[in-house]
Amino acid sequence: MDASTSTSKKKPVAIITIGMAGAGKSTFVQRINSYLHSLDPPSPPYILNLDPAVTHVPFEANIDIRDTVNYQEVMKQYNLGPNGGILTALNLFTTKFDQVLGLVEKRADTVDYVILDTPGQIEIFTWSASGAIITDAVASSIPTVVAYIIDTPRTTAPATFMSNMLYACSILYKTKLPFILVFNKTDVQPHNFALDWMQDFEEFQAALASHSGARDSEGEPTYMNSLMNSMSLVLDEFYKHLKAVGVSSMTGDGIKEFFEAVEGARTEYENEYMPELERARALRDKSLQDAKNDSMNRLMKDLAVDQEKNPGGAFLDRWDPEEENDDDDDDGDMNIVDRSEGPWPGQYIDVTRARRHEDEAINWPRPG
Ligand SMILES: Nc1nc2c(ncn2[C@@H]2O[C@H](COP(=O)(O)OP(=O)(O)O)[C@@H](O)[C@H]2O)c(=O)[nH]1
Ligand SMILES: [Mg+2]
Fold first, then answer.
1. Where is the composition biased (Acidic residues) (predicted)?
2. Rounded Cα gap, residues 155 and 322, in angstroms
C-alpha cells in the first residue's frame, strides 16, 4: 500500500444481517442505524433493504428492492407462491446488482458502514444463487462481515440452540466471511447461558442431560442425546472462530460492543479473507489467460494454413462497417434508484412546494 492510500479514509465495512424469520434483523438494522446517527459526529450508514415482501421497514433505506421489483406482480406473472415470489424478486434484483454496487462504491468515501437487511426467511438468502452472488459481490468490493442474528429467548432449549448453531456454522463455511453471533432480545432473555455453553461444552452436555427426553425408558441416553453430545465437540472448534455479542434491538443494549466486534472483523477480513480472495482471483485470471493463449495459438495456426491455400481470401473476408447491427443492448426497464440522490421516477413530488424560478427571464408572446 502506498502513502496516498494509507492516509485516505478507511473503506466502509459492509454488515450483512442474516437470521431466522422473526429473529429481529430489521429491528436490529434500525437500532444500529439510530446508534450511528447518534454518534458525535454522526455517521449515517448506507442501507440496502433486500426484503421484497416487507410491508414496513423501520429504517430509511438508501436502496430498496421494492423500488425495483414488485414481488406481488412477480407472483402473479410467474404463478408463484409467496416464497417463490420473494426468491424470484431477489433473482431479478440480482441481475442489476452491478448498478447497486456502483452506487455503493460511489459512497464509499463518505460512509463508514453499508448495511444489508435480508429477507425474513433465512434460506431465501442463504441457500439461493442470488444470495451468494450478492454476498460475493459485496465482499470482493469492501470489507464485509456477517451478523448472524439469534432470537435468544427461543434458543434456551439445548436442541434448538444446537440446530441454530449448526445453521450458523453452515453459513460460515459457505461464505468464509468474518462472523459475529448476535444474541438479540437480551431484554427478554440474557444471553449468558449461551456464552457458557459455547465456552465449555461440558456445561452444554450437562444441560442436555438434564433436559426431558435425554434418557429412554430404560435409563439409557437416547440416540438424539448421544448425537448432540458428539456434535457439541465438533461445534467447539467452530466457536473458536466466532465473536459473540448480546444485544437488545429494543433498548439498544450491547450495540457499542457489537461495533467493537465489527472493527475486529474488519481486521480479520483484511488479514484472512482478502489474501484468500486475491489468490483465487489470480488463479482464475491465470487459467483465463491460458485458455486465451491456447485459442489464440490455434487461431494463428489456422490462419497460416488458410493463407497458404488461398492467398487472396483475406481481402474478401474483412469486416464491413456498413453491416453493423445497431440494436441497443436491451437493459430492460428496471433501474436501481438511490433514494438519497434526489427524485426518482414515480416519486411523489409536492408541487405546492415547488419554487418558481424568478431568474428565468421568460418572455411570453402577448396575444394580438
Ligand atoms: N423484546 C424484543 N423484541 C424484539 C427485539 N428485536 C426485535 N424484536 C421483535 O421481534 C419481532 C421480529 O422482528 P423483525 O425485525 O421484524 O424480524 P426479522 O424478520 O428478522 O426482520 C418484532 O415483533 C420485533 O418487535 C428485541 O431486542 N427485544
Ligand atoms: Mg425483516
1. 320-333
2. 69
